[in-house]
Input
Amino acid sequence: MTDVGIGLTGLATLIALIAVRVPIGIALIGVSFTGLYVLMGPRIAWGAMSIVPYSFTSSWILSSIPMFLFMGFISYHTQLTRGMFNAARIWLSSLPGGLAIASIFGSAGFAAVSGSSIACSAAMGRIAIPEMMKYKYHPELATGTVAVAGTIGALIPPSIILILYGVIAQISITQLFLGGVVAGLMTAVGYILVVLLRVWLNPALAPERDTSVSLREKILALRETWPILLIMLGIFGGLFGGVFTPTEAGAVGASMACLVAILTRQMTLGRFLTAARETLMTTAALLIIAIGASLLTRFLALSGAGDYLSSGILDIASSPVLLMLGIVCVYLLMGMFLEPIGAMLLTLPIILPVVDAAGWSLLWFGIVLTKLLEIGMITPPIGMNVFVIKSVVGDLVKTSAIFRGVAWFIVMDLVLVAILCTFPELVLWLPALVK
Amino acid sequence: MFMIGRLLSFLAKSSSLIGAICVILMMLHVTADVVGRYVFNVPLPGTIVMVANYYMIIVVFIALGVAEEKNSHISVEFVTDLMPPRVQTGFSVFSGILTVGVISVVMIGGWTEAVKKTNIGATMEQGSQRIEIWQAYWLVPLGAALMALIAGYRVITTVTGWRNGLNETDVNAKFIND
Amino acid sequence: NNLSFAGGWPPNSSPTAKIEDYAKAVEEYSNGEVSVRVFPLSLLSFSEINAGLRDGIADVAGNLLAYFPSEFPNLNMLAEFSELVELEEFSGELSSLAFTGAIMEYVMTSCPACMEEMSAQNQVYLGAASTTSYVLQCAVPLTSVADLEGKRIRAAGAYWARWAEGVGATPVSMSINETLEGLNQGVVDCTMSNTADFVNFGFIDVVDYVYVGAPGAQFNVPFTMNKDSWNGLSDDNKGAMLRAHAKLAADIAWVYVEEGRAGRERAPDMGIEYGPAPDDIVALNREFIAEDKDAIASIYNERFGITNGAEAADALTELLGKWTELTKDVSGGEELAEIYEAEIFSKVDVSSYGK
Ligand code: NA
Ligand code: NA
Output
């Protein structure tokens, strides 16, 4: 069998294993180890197994994931979010699906303090889903909205993907961030439209609208929002005031959540430890998959299967439109299985020269690419954001139900990608203004 | 057999407590570094190396077994859900055996690396400080071993139908109802 | 023989382009008997490269030894002596070319302990390349030594942290990818980075002042090869590899010089003050280096029992004199490669090296 053949066989085996309910991390690690063994021999396969799990995990940047998770768990267990969502519910109560819309607003806000979409989903999932379940939102809508809204986290700065892309494509990260702001806000608006449309088509998805709320009630509801606003203010103020970096923001945010919870007299030792235990389990469940995806990236690189898949599609493209369609297909396909950073690192060596040759803006492409990679975070069979939400809801909602809830938003994502491709100036005007 | 389950459950519970304490320490350590740097111009030496090589490694690897006990490793159910219960049991035994095999590979790999790092006395530098990190490498085989034991035990109790002494209730599932 | 090269630099970057050139050179010099496949970042990250080369996941790579203090004490000590280039007789835009030559010559001809370290990690040393000198890149102005007091300055390694402590500033550790935002938001006031990273990591977009001449020192990246892969080559092919590595060392060192130049040329248009550091800072820096040279020897003696630190510093100082003379008029990578080949790589005995 050729090397590429081994790579493709590995991918097929991976899909089969995941389909029969083998834990995803185990399937990824098993296929990568076996694949490397067949391809390169025992020494290299064992070498990869001894190096990658430790080196991938011992990452300062990744440490913001448990810390943002912890912040969310504390906020949830000490009921810091109740006031905010009560206010959001009351203010948006005259809108169909008001709480789902409020959670999209919340994610966009969280996106400004979180570099990854996983952390964003994790934190918002903790805060928003229990509230939506309580108000009898359909589980698919509740979980789907939060899973998908997390992807705003990688578009609105700070963004780990955009930083890496900027380093690789050698373009200004500040400029990329400004482009990401526009794309992130457009995405938020798009998702809100989806919620409105779904509830309009099927009113049973969300509780009945309540138009009886008076202005006085709305103002009163704002009084209970201070705990979360204080934390948000602390994070924003600290980040933009130069007190700490985005990576440190997770830990500082968690500390602030603890302090506020003590102020509101909701903190107990039991809740504190429960939040820490849940952070622990969620982090381990996510990181074992990320380790597996990182191993798979090496296997695909060495087998050449990654190159084969993307260059095959690119060869067929004869016009710019076809080329763009080809690129979209490559990333949607890779996004089904790979973690975004691995997929990006694997493909940019081939894709960037092509983009350059086509005369496209690398800044614009970075934003579209991030959008495409983030779609991968919510598509089956491996959709990290969906898994984060699954770990939040436990046995109450099936993974497949969350994937169904996400499907509507994927359609909107594809529409947004089409809009960004047709009108690149949507991404480029803000960076140009600041230049 | 039941007592083995209780013992594994006790080990998982202890791991969970150590891990939870590490989550809390990580938060405090990074916050203290930020406050020290901003307020007093005295950052805590070695924070980045400590967070990456101790807190992150302990949090992830010590919790592998805990997540295995609580069945919270993420999998995709939608295909197997369509099948009859007997077939589903078959798949979960298959998946359990595969888990034991794969995580044992991680354990052996982690063990060989930990031996090498211990022999060389691996360190890392941050600023002018030198911090020993070889100890952290042992968490990989340790955490993987606990996960392999729990997964293996579950396969045995599933096949034999013996009473399983694990504490499988998922803490995550409870919160949503309260 | 089909070799893999794990590049730690991003695809599309100039160093990666030079590694591609190197791959072609290996094929040409070996008459097609050896080929090199380059994996930029997708195979191993910089923190994995040492173990990856040791276990043969890749055959050749640029190995950042500074990540592994316990594995490579001798080589790391030598790299720290790059501070010497800031002394008056060696300083200049091309000092990294001289230091690259000096350290390669010393390691390959006079440092058996370095060879043992390499061998213990199952690797063979095949040259190195130094970045340009580290300079102060700041969001706030520095007019004199007094301004350094209490400034938060990002330090990338031990030398720079000692320097910051020595001048009364606060050294801050931060990953390179966070530094841009850290500077932009004011978490740090300055970064100590080389003049090429000024452009490559986008600092050019956020700093207003670049001060050349302090703190100095350079980051040295050795190129190393898996020992079994090396000894799987015929003597002729080993010779071809060495010739290609003279080219690689020269090309990478030269690319950093070129990128540094490009940054300096772009800076004025972006309103950045780019020039020599205030005189008293440069003077303080030279005093610091004179003392730090001994400090390095004693730190490595205390931590790793290396006893010849002072002699190594003297030997490097002497070699730096020779190499400053050899490289002072170099105008391109090819010219530099010929010098490295003639003075160092062609003198290596292929039948015994790395056995
Ligand atoms: Na973000
Ligand atoms: Na996916």
Q: What stands out?
A: The pocket of sodium ion (ligand 2) is lined by residues A 335-336, 376, 379, 382-383 (CB under 6 Å). The radius of gyration of chain C is 20 Å. Residues 235-266 of chain C form the longest helix (32 residues). The longest strand of chain C covers residues 123-130.
